[in-house]
Amino acid sequence: MAAGKPQKQAVAIAYATKNAAPKKAGGKIGLWDNIHAKRERIAEGSGERMRKPGTKGAPTAMDFKTAAGKKSGGDVKLSISRGEKRPTDQGAGLTKKGRDKVNRLTGSNLKAPAPHPKSDADKGRKDSFCARMSGVVKNAKGDAPRAKASLKKWNCPGW
Hints:
Helix content: 40-55%
Number of strands: 0
């Protein structure tokens, strides 16, 4: 072969791909499945190497956290008494402490409310939040007092 991967390596990759493990629920093969498959190919003499941490294409720390099943946003428990979210009479929503906790546990990037936006980006965030939360109130089975309070806190039109 003049260009590309050496023939032995190309054959090993093709064979491994053909005989790959069945996909997990959701149709995806996970990070660790890929790592184990590559280790097997290397052990069989494919000529491949594992990438060094920090190099292009190598899994990042966040990739490993995600693969480990880190909590998603809905699983984070927040409390008014610990100061992580505001009571309904104070406009509901999360405090800085609560946003920091969610960001730390989920890798999110929650920002402070923008009731009086100064930039176009914040105006877009406010419009998006108001539309999304209005839908929550509209489709709620009950009264949805926290959603209503947050709409009022964000200065959404009509609330």
